[in-house]
Amino acid sequence: MKLMISMIVFLFGLSAYCAGEGSLGTSNAEFAFKLYGKLKDAKGNVLFSPYSISTAFAMTYAGARGETEKQMAEAMCFKLPQDELHPAFDELQKKINSYSSDKKCQLLVANSLWPDKNYKFLDGYLKTIKDNYGSETRPVDYQKESDKACVEINKWVEDKTEKKIKDLIPPGAIDPLTRLVLVNAIYFKVDHPFIFFIRDSVTGSILFMGRMQNP
User: Fold this and answer.
1) Where are the domains of the chain?
2) How far, in Å, CA of 183 to CA of 138, rounded?
3) Is the entire prediction scored with pTM above 0.85?
4) Chain-centre distance of CA 176, in angstroms?
5) Using an 8 Å Cβ cutoff, are 169 and 149 in contact?
6) What is the arrangement of strands in the sheet containing 194-201, beginning at the earlier edge strand?
7) I want to staple 29 with a disulfide (CB 3.0 to 4.6 A). Which of 12, 69, 140, 148 is the partner?
8) What mean pLDDT, rounded, does the chain reach?
9) Is pLDDT of 125 > 90?
10) Cα–Cα distance, 214 to 132 (Å, whole number)
């Protein structure tokens, strides 16, 4: 057996195409460590996807203006202006999805937008989400059929994750007052397991991940 070693920050490296302090890669890494700082004291293991959270909020951020836009940018560590940020997310998602062609390592990201069909959204906002996040837009009737909408969204997530995630949205979470649901799903599969270990260094302990495979 052969051990392949890589830093756990591999996913951050996927966005290295955009160099510079204000790049999406830098922003995503900053947000990831910022969020981890808030979660690390929780009991037990901590597992979260900074990229999924950033993507979902970026889709929301596309419709924000004024003080709301400013506060969201600060919280999410978005450094790029809106006209550059969303195309950067588009390029990153395409890069990630390109790994799905490798049968030994499949990584797929999918987004969807579920607006209330009775509520008017700005055409520019919907276009930004569709063009930059590859988002499927699926209008539903939350006011009259909120339970049905919940079932449809859960079915979409289940299909996009090879049935690994079921009933993501619990009953009652969506009601007649809901106007928009943004969904981000990630599917990740490898043909060999990953192992994690801690290696002590001069500067401290570093978490690595390795993958076992035949030579």
Assistant:
1) 2-213
2) 11
3) no
4) 27
5) no
6) 2-7, 204-213, 194-201
7) 12
8) 80
9) yes
10) 39
